[in-house]
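Sequence in, structure out.
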Amino acid sequence: MEIILQPWPWYVSGPLIALVMTALLYTGKKFGMSSNLQTLCSAAGAGKVTEFFNFDWKAERWNLVVILGAVLGGFMASNYLVEPDFEIGVNPAVVSVLQDYGFSATESNYLPPDLFLWENLNAKHFLLLLGGGFLIGFGARYAGGCTSGHAISGLSNLQLPSLIAVLGFFAGGLVMVHLLFPLIF
């Protein structure tokens, strides 16, 4: 049996997302990775340290299944659903820009190994990753949710704050890529 490896078309994945969101709306649940991670931290005992994590995590334990599914799905996709000789096609203009920044092997990698391999981790990269992680966590908390929560859950609920947050996420991403990234590298 041959497996065809390509993304699901929008007319399959879109209605599936809508079906999941309808079920979550019907049951009064919220979706977003920051909510899932909040549940994980509460289950690990973080509620003893800060009030934000002090809630009945067992009532939200379904969130833990989402985290498990994301980890297992990523593992399965990267190990079992990718053809061994599969080559990605990165736009030559992007390759040129990344090579100007000092990255190599950009023609066949979405994530430049110069930045993401353990042996290439230096103090600058560590501080960038640590700072970026802090800013993402702070931003998700300040915005009342993460990108997936606002873009999928909040927009499907027609919430104006989610629309504002999503516009902010996109504007921040554009500023980072076009203004800050060239200054950092």
